[in-house]
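Q: I'm writing up a methods section and want to include an example of the input and output format. Could you take the sequence below and give the corresponding predicted structure tokens, formatted cleanly so I can copy it straight into the document?
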Amino acid sequence: MKRHLFLIALVLFATSLQVAESQERKRTPALREQVYSQLARAQELADAGDVPAGIAALQNVEAKISSMNSYERAMLWNFYGYMYYGQDNIERAIHYFSKVV
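A: Here is the clean output for your methods example:
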């Protein structure tokens, strides 16, 4: 009898751990196609040597920041940091990279 009670308690404990674990998981927001294509365009401009146009493209994306999820905002800040780092503007790069975290 004690053994059965112990097994039941063990099963209930394991089940409660699984429920708690599944509740702790967070959904990771996705990068929507529209935001991705705009960020990719900014990167293409910067990679082609037109960093000011790339930054202008990022500013267009930033104008819509209120509709962006946290992952999209983090990617935007990361792209800004990348571009400023590429221009050796370390202070601005650090400013934007720090917004990512």
